[in-house]
Amino acid sequence: MAALVEVTALYGAEPDDVFASALQFDELMDAMSGLAVYEGLAPGTIAEEGKTYTVDVTFWGLIKMKGHVMHVERLDRENRVLQSRESGNGIKRWDHNLSVRAEGSGARWIDRVEIDAGWQTAFITRFARFVYTRRHKHRKALEITRQITRA
Fold it and tell me: Which of 25, 52, 58, 108 could disulfide-link to 45, CB 3.0 to 4.6 Å?
């Protein structure tokens, strides 16, 4: 059964700047430093609509997940929305909708991830909630909310 992870974070920066940073894989790798190492992404890579990126991810220097596929299905810069479909290593579906909207004098970054990993779904969704929360803490978010619900 699929589950939905939603993590939102408030930033004291311009929404366009926040969204631009979300598209940079270097920023992702920096936010994941100490937790995960990504192999297969060239420095300076920026998400592009229609592109598929295949990477090997090593967590905590111990757990290597080979062939994780990230496909950027939709990228709408004007409305600050990125939709990706990811899979690999027992994960049947990891549909990530990332959006950034103006809020007050800053920006609200919203990660909504629908995950289906078969019998591993409960564990994987909790891990996803941890990872997205950690990324926003690393980015110095002013406020973070998070939840898991059934999809």
Answer: 25
Q: Please tell me the pTM assigned to this model.
A: 0.92
Q: Enumerate residues 6+ apart whose C-beta is below 8 A from 55.
A: 38, 39, 40, 41, 68, 70
Q: For residue 15, what are its two tokens?
A: 């929404």
Give the tens place of pLDDT for each residue, 107-129: 999 999 999 999 999 999 999 99
**Burial class of residue 132, CB neighbours in 10 A (0-12, 13-18, 19+):** buried
Q: CB-based contacts of 34: which residues, under 8 Å, 6+ apart?
A: none
Token match 């939102």: residue?
Answer: 8
Backbone φ, ψ for residue 31 (5° rounding): -65, -25
What would you report as the CA-atom Rg of the chain, rounded to the nearest whole angstrom? 15
Instruction: Measure the N-to-C terminal CA separation of the chain; round to a whole number of Å.
Output: 8
